[in-house]
Amino acid sequence: MDKIHMTWNEFESDITEFVEYMKKIKFDKDSVILGLKRGGLPSAVYLSNKLDIPISLVSFQTRDNNDVEPKFLEPEIIKNTKNVIIVDDIYDSGLTVDTLIDELGTQFNKPFKNIAGLFHYGTPKLQDSKLKYYRRISSNKNKWVVFPWES
Predict the structure, then answer these.
(1) Residue 151 in domain
(2) CB atoms within 10 A of CB 93
(3) Distance between CA 94 and CA 146 in Å, rounded?
(4) What is the DSSP letter of 126?
(5) What are phi and psi of 61, to 5 degrees?
(6) Would you state the pLDDT for residue 53?
């Protein structure tokens, strides 16, 4: 499979573009960034610093049958907010994000006002997700993405 190597400049540009997008749609600052371990963590930390809003982590993935149930590592941060920004590196089938959104409602027993998502690379399936707002920066079919922290 062909590879595409993301640079640190492209990474920073993606985050900046997402911050501008969030300002444009006037996303409420009463939010928490939910970083998916492992792929979403670099972006989640960087975005948290840029937007000056708290970050919480979730251990969950559907790809390798590891972490098959979401484990929210700091639930008190999520419980005390109205909005969630889900951050992961790649959006492929949508199963991880849609399951996570369902689990947020179940575990915290409340509807969140807005749920947004940031993904550096995503498939067209993102348009059908349960996210109210999202940002797919790029789409590269049949290419393996190598992020700067992976090289």
Answers:
(1) no
(2) 11
(3) 20
(4) G
(5) -160, 155
(6) 92
How far apart are alpha carbons 82 and 131 in whole angstroms?
14
23 in any annotated domain: yes
Is 97's pLDDT higher than 80? yes
Q: What separation in angstroms does the CA of 114 have from each of 3, 6, 71, 99?
A: 34, 29, 21, 16
Domain that holds residue 96: 2-145
Token look-up 């993405």 returns 145
Sheet holding 55-59, edge to edge: 71-72, 55-59, 31-37, 83-91, 114-122, 133-138
Assess whether the previous peptide bond of 63 is cis (omega < 30° from 0).
no
- Domain-embedded: residue 150: no
Number of domains in the chain: 1
Q: Which two tokens stand for residue 50?
A: 């840029």
pLDDT digits (tens, 9 = 90+) for 53-69: 999 999 887 766 666 78
Q: Read off the pTM.
A: 0.86
Q: Please tell me the distance from the alpha carbon of residue 60 to that of residue 24, in angstroms, as a whole number.
A: 30
- Whether 89 maps to a domain, the answer reads yes
Residue type at position 16: T
| CATH assignment of the domain containing 133 | 3.40.50.2020
